[in-house]
Specification:
This protein has 16 helices and 16 strands. The protein is of the alpha/beta class and about 425 residues long. The protein has 2 domains: about 120 residues, Urease, subunit C, domain 1; about 290 residues, TIM Barrel.
Length: about 425
Amino acid sequence: MSSITYIRCASQLITVRGGTKEPKRAQDMSDIGIIEHGSVVVENGLITFVGSDVEAERYVHTLNGHINTIDASGKIVTPGLIDAHTHIVFGGSREKELEMRLNGAKYIDILKAGGGILQTTTSTREATEEQLIQETSKRLNRFLQYGVTTVEAKSGYGLTLEDELKQLRAAKKLDERHPIDIVSTFMGAHAVPVEYKENPDEFVRLVIEEMIPRVAEENLAEFCDVFCEEGVFTIQQSEQILEAGKRYGLKPKIHADEIVQFGGAELAAKVGAVSADHLLQVSDEGIKQMAKSGVIAVLLPGTAFFLMEKPANARKMIEAGVPVALSTDRNPGSSPTESLPFIMNLACLTMKMTPAEVLTACTINAAHAIGKADEVGSIEVGKKGDLVLFDAPNYQTLQYNYAVNLVDTVIKKGQVIVE
Ligand code: NIG
Ligand code: FE
């Protein structure tokens, strides 16, 4: 017997339709496809009807079987939120770094002195796969409470073949066990581990010749990412790693131009990256090339906020025609939060994105940034029944009430997961 969920009469159904083939850019980012008094029907996990309340009543009458009806009146319904950039599989915690930074230490200097990412590498190496699964599932539970139904998860705290595989296997098991869908990215080039400090090229060789082939062979990731930054991986090393990933079917992504202007955005365009992320210091030329090549900018205003830096220039990128997505960057050093709705608030308040643009950025554009736009990211017939009911009468209220959790109900593949 089929399982039917009928979400009826939302004050605004935010479909974000019309962006499945290409991510939304410029003015299209403001077109969020609102249906007033809209309803959705999900059958066996997939959306089968989207439309007005009146049409929905007629449609539902033609169905056989038990119908779980959810009254959404007075609430808005959006696609399940998508977090396109996280580092959630790790051991340990780094609360002491906050105090160090408040006393004037810089994020990158803590890393260069062997702390930061390298500290999390030590604790992740010490953790078993099962411990990583336990710790990460707590983070995933919190994501769900904030309306997030799909996340990307990067490796990059193992930095040995076995420890990178351990992180990616943990993510794969969580994808099977947890309601949230997880898309994995191999990020062996997240930092040069201490044992290769004097010979970083040898570590790059290890990533290219041993890690990438094995990750691909075990089918543990869809993307390959690099921390391309002064003092971490050079443009040349990043290009070699991303090209090697491409040869093994891993689509490129880049941590680009975060701390200094380094040419990461230009490299993203050159290698045909799906996304370039961070971009606080991106050059005008980099923006131009990203727009031309269709590279998605994944902006992380929570990271800028937590590191007390000026955020990326989202307006410039949107006006230049770069498709923009938003993400938490959830990680233990520069962004310890699962609240994607708060990141949306920050995008409005610190980067002047509009309430409509931030919804596009956390739904269909984020889906494109992880290669899943044909499955999720909008409320359209044939997509997964991943939906969020927010206790708000209109979409502007989500950004007006900042840093509060307005999530009322989370539906994953038609099943109510949070209520
Ligand atoms: O995206 N910038 C590099 N990597 C992460 C931070 C990882 C960490 O500090 O543990 C980021 O901000
Ligand atoms: Fe990151």
